[in-house]
Amino acid sequence: MTLAPYAVVDAISQGRRFDEPAPSYRSEFQRDRDRIIHAAAFRRLEYKTQVFVNHEGDLFRTRLTHSIEVAQIARSIARALQLNEDLTEAIALAHDLGHTPFGHAGQDALNACMQDFGGFEHNLQSLRVVDELEEKYADFPGLNLCFETREGILKHCSLKNAAGLGDIGTRFIDKQQPNLEAQLTDLADSIAYNSHDVDDGLRSGLISIDQLKDVPLFAEQYDEVRQRYPNLSARGSIHEVVRRLINCQVIDLVRTSTDSLAKHQPTDLGAVRQHSQPLIAFSDIMRERNLELKRFLHTRLYRHYRVHRMSAKAEQIICNLFESFFEDPRLMPEEAQQKVSNLKAEQGEPGQARAVADYIAGMTDRYAIKEYQRVFNPEELT
Ligand code: MG
């Protein structure tokens, strides 16, 4: 398929941190995608919370299924806009690799623990996973991904952090846009979670159809489905509405972005970067509809007392583990201890804290719970 002149292609890539021969039979971005799929951090996503902790039910999204849904949505959009699907897929599959166990509650807790040592941010951690923490290849640390993939993984970044990141941080300082594949994957992420959190929220019983009828984006689709399929079961109606929610957002995004690309006619990737605004965007009305749904999910689902109760436990687990490991790294497995002493030798106390944070961030929900038991429960002997 012919790609648009502003798509990322191998020939214009800014390359990898460590030079490597070009891959055989694959493009550079296929190779990035493949490396991500084979990474340990990718497999761990299966047991990390999106909203619901893994043991709460088998049908809820996990970070892994979320990432796959983002990749599906992002690829459809990339193809419709004649952009690089392989790069898009790589960014989508890697975008959540840096998440701690227990979702946002886990990240907030770890960030609080790391306050005196530069903080903790899951987005930055995703980059750290692919740049430093994965240990797979003999010739280099991390996955040695292409600049454009790494740029897409680092969606946002404070100016302070950007200054320490070298080439990948420059765009935040220069206020430039990332490549279009990165822009669209960011929005595909929000399409995915807004839609599947409605599905999971209803399935869990924490939110109801009645409440959702006040949210225009949902109500419009729901009314249409009820009218067209009056005899459809409650569950069947929800499925039909959720698929329509995804579809209408994708269509809006493709249409609006096609118009905006036609209007501004960026000649190449350089022009995309220089543009004052992202060229991939929802229409104003869809952006508003999205915000309404997001606000609803925040108040009704993410702050529901049952979600909050689990978040409070998560915070306790993360904070207690961090304090204990930081005070006495010998409580950690030997491999993790080694990493703590290496980073401590390089960077002193902040290095020690960072290595403890890396260890905790890498845990799955169930591993963190188990580790908490092993450290704090006297009856847990293993
Ligand atoms: Mg995500």
TrEMBL record:
This is DNTP triphosphohydrolase, broad substrate specificity. Pfam families: HD, HD_assoc. Residues 63-194 form the HD domain. SUPFAM superfamilies: HD-domain/PDEase-like. Transmembrane segments: none annotated. Keywords: Hydrolase. SMART domains: HDc. Gene3D superfamilies: Hypothetical protein af1432. GO terms for molecular function: dGTPase activity. GO terms for biological process: dGTP catabolic process.
